[in-house]
Design brief:
With about 900 residues, the protein is of the alpha+beta class. Helices cover about 40% and strands about 25% of the residues. The structure holds serine.
Amino acid sequence: MESAEVARRFLGFFEERGHTVVPSASLIAEDPTLLLVNAGMVPFKPYFLGQRTPPAPRMTSAQKCVRTPDIDEVGKTTRHATFFQMLGNFSIGDYFKEGAIPFAWELLTRPRSDGGFGFPEDRLWVTVFHDDDEAAAIWHDKVGLPQERIQRRGLADNYWHMGVPGPGGPCSEIYYDRGPDYGREGGPVVDEDRYLEVWNLVFMQSQLGEVRSKTDFDTVGDLPAKNIDTGMGLERMAAILQGVDNIYETDTLWKVLDRAAELTGSRYGADQRADVSLRVIADHVRSGTMMVADGIRPGNEGRGYVLRRILRRSIRNLRLLGGQEAGLMHALTEVAIAAMGEQYPELIRTAPTIHTVIDAEEDSFLQTLRTGTAIFDTAVAEARRAGRTALPGDQAFKLHDTYGFPIDLTLEMAAEQGLQVDEEGFRRLMQEQRDRAKRDAREKKSGNLDVSVLDDLLTSAGGAVEFTGYGEVSGEARLAGLLINGANVPAAGEGAQVEVVLDRTPFYAEGGGQLADHGVIRAGNGAVIQVDDVQSPLAGLIVHRGRVVSGEAQVGDTVYAEIDLERRRAISRSHTATHMVHAGFRRALGESAAQAGSENSPGRFRFDFTASGPVPPSVLRDVEDEVNEVLVNDLDVRAFHTSIEQARSMGALALFGEKYGDEVRVVEVGDYSRELCGGTHVARSGQLGLIKVLGESSIGAGVRRVEALVGIDAFRFLARESVLVAQLSEQLKARKEELPERISGVVSRLRDAERELERLRSREVLAVAASLAGGARDLGGVAFVAHRAPDGTGADDLRKLAVDVRGRLSAGPAVVVVAGVPKDRPVVVIATTEGARERGLKAGALVGVAAKALGGGGGGKDDLAQGGGSDPAAIDEALRAVENAVGAS
Ligand code: SER
């Protein structure tokens, strides 16, 4: 049974039983306590907590998940994957254990020919929480499972929570017995390899506060209702139903694995180490593809780092298999997109962007490997010189930390050089860094994020704050909550820094690239709060941040909220301009120019999008020109709500990876641009006045950033440029249109003059060569010349001079020493003739003698060598030292 069919059957079974099929949410968790969605229930959390009303009491989904804590296990075990899909059925206060258990049993045991998964009843075992007699009774009495196949376990195994504050409850897990070949008799409590967990039924009933570990947490109360959350790993189920031993051999992953084997000329099953690499590649390429498709970009922190690590591990494993060349990731991504495209059609739609991002990351990592290799070689040379047999831990750490060089690569390359690596030192430094990061994260988190406080605020605001700012710029509201330093307070006096929640507000919270509104909130009793930031830390919640500038604000007050209209207007101009520029780039560069972020600030905006290389200046000019031409036509800017399907069919641009509800808001600028957007805009395009694109740059692999000005700021910029040009024209005594030619003429004359000067200086230096050769002294049969060139003579000239003098003395043994101070450090060059070298006088060694006197080092060949130091006053001493060495030969 194909993976897609497993999902279809699961969803279909529950749909027939009154469940609404909910599409998978984006991997980017809306929940601020999570980086990535890591369980099927994550999008349902607000329903369990009673924060939001579910679209239906019964729901079912197949949810994309990413989990990386066990990344090192991927490929080594049969079941670890960084990307997986969770099938689940959910009940919000509808059925509980008595419904969930028989449903699960029916779907698992119903024959395949009849839409089920066809498991033989006697191969199924279950576990229940140790005191959950109710669940045990349902399994026994209602389902008919014999007592000996119902096992009881404690908190560690049969209680489920998210690892963070939120819902939790006891669970009952269903296991499939793979048979005696796979391990010992005795059920899951004895052997979890033989007995594979296939389905987890969680009876969500408690609200948890602090969670310290799997088994150590605080229960703060009951959830508003008793709920069901179940999770079945699609990949594991597919493995069982496809009769393969591990998830990497199931249909979708196998396609990537097989292609990876083909591209690297390896054969799966022939070598254990190679098999692990192939499995890692299969899993990671698929994960990376899914993450990029949801809008995540490789980076150095958070989700971006998770993605970068996954992609780099794939590339690294390809290299271990001998796949060195660029383009392998492209080929594998193509397979992953095709394999997953049936379930996730957006992969096919956004394939060009996915490729751009992954190809760019491959490029940059291959470049890293090249640079890292050079650093590695230096480290090896140093270790050898110092007579060490191992590379020091700090070198391995530096390679890892600065050059992204994986430790296993360092180990392998060191082994090739017959060296070991101080792994212990490396690991110690890694641990120190990890501890530092953890401390930082903890500080950041405790500093500004307490989810339970936010939940309370949302409740006091009536479940969701109403945003009135599309139509209003001011209005009355109720002060629903006040925070000082993250804690709820009933009132706040003059001078206090506060966070304020109203039940309705015209203030726009920063989001979708649009910066927050500023303004004031006034209470009837005279209290005034100056607002300078607005955020939405939780869906539905709008938090105003600011200072009480007079009076005392109290929870429950009726207040009047008013935004800074000028700022809002300028930001709205930027936002509309961003939409137009986005449309312009897509027209010019094609579909793959997908927006990857933006910032709309007053008068200024920036816009990031995916592109494989720099955007040519001519394209920037054309887009700017087109947008300006269109905007003066004063198009209507209109916003309306519609269904996501309708919006798509109208060609509205949805932001890559953004999560949208069923109903979406579309903003259109005449016929020129149509985009899904929650931001604020101008009413007519003519209000933008003018846009000016400032330039374009790279902000990371495959992502470009365009910055631009709009309205009066664009005009002022152009006005300033015009003044600048006028000044230049006056100084150069040329008309404006003649300036480029005039400047290039001046620059090229300057360059010629510099070259001429250089030539004259060289000639002057070399002019002394003949007299130096003539004045050579005889040191025991060796002609010796020691010369100090005037300060400022370049190192090149010093070398030329030494070689020139040597040429004039080449008949016999001769040593020429030329010293000078090109900038502020002394340099010495020594040239020897063949005769001198035959007598054992080698330039490299002699330079060592000179450099020592100068307080530095140097080296080179036997015939010509250069060295330097730090003390120009020691030049005479250095020349004498060389003379003594030659004299003593
Ligand atoms: N939340 C449970 C799990 O992730 C069941 O969906 O295993």
